[in-house]
Design brief:
This protein is an alpha+beta fold and 318 residues long. It has 11 helices and 10 strands.
Amino acid sequence: RFFAKQPFSQMLSGNFLGAPLGIGDDAAIVSIPNEHDLVVTTDTSISGRHFLESTSAFHIAYRSIAVSLSDLAAMGAIPYGFLLNITLPEYNEVWLTEFSGGIAQIAKTYGLTLIGGDTTRGPLAIGVTHLGLVSKGQAIQRSTAKSGDLIIVSGSLGDAAAGLDCLKRETRAVTDYLPSRYLQPEVRLNLGRVLGGFATSAIDISDGLLADLGHILTKSGVGGVINFDAIPLSNAIVDYWGETKARQFAVCCGDDYELCFTIPADKCDTLKVLADKVNIELTVIGQINSDVGNLQCLDSAGNPMEFLNTGFNHFYDN
């Protein structure tokens, strides 16, 4: 089997104390520590749909693992092990060596352990399944936002969309920051960990702020209002697109993998302490209300705005 033969699989699987049996058998055996729940998430990344065909093998590996890992962050879980499935058009040792380097890099960055996987022949696609742990009953969900809660996002939004635009145009931005935000998204695991018991709901921004926040509203049976001018932007995206266009893309486009979460309004004073603790900028962009399922984005005059594109759709072109 491919994974049993590759040097990186041995390197990444050797320290997984939670697996009495890992890579090299028909299946891994995973032990769940007492008083913990197992959180499981899976994602598939397909060439030409989720990453450009010109993307390097290193970045395909890194990005494919990161986007799935972000789901654990949104639920306040810590990584416990992951499985990796690769569909390849043909065997290419040079490509696989570079791909393995991407796996090794993200595994080192976030302390990940590979516990199994599979390979098959076909159009290039990567499937990743992450296992995570959270204290029993403490996973952050989408369904528990309350009217009056504040809506908060981490970091800056729209950078990945701008980075993808740079890659498609084969142009360089002022720096390489924007392309790197698309190719190597920063997973907010540390933030997710400290949000447990603090946030009333959370989601990672994969499909776009409007789309993903909309999932919270639907699952929680609430509504919400966000302020267009409050959406946090990086200097790089403003330099690249100008503030107005940058903010429009920040609201509608995904792939940033920042966290959007809600907290009770009376906990606002502790937000700065939280931001300092994880060294991440946290911005209040709006508030949850009781207008079930209705999400409004208001301009500086308080008027509702309309957008032609409200997020990524997995079955249609965007």
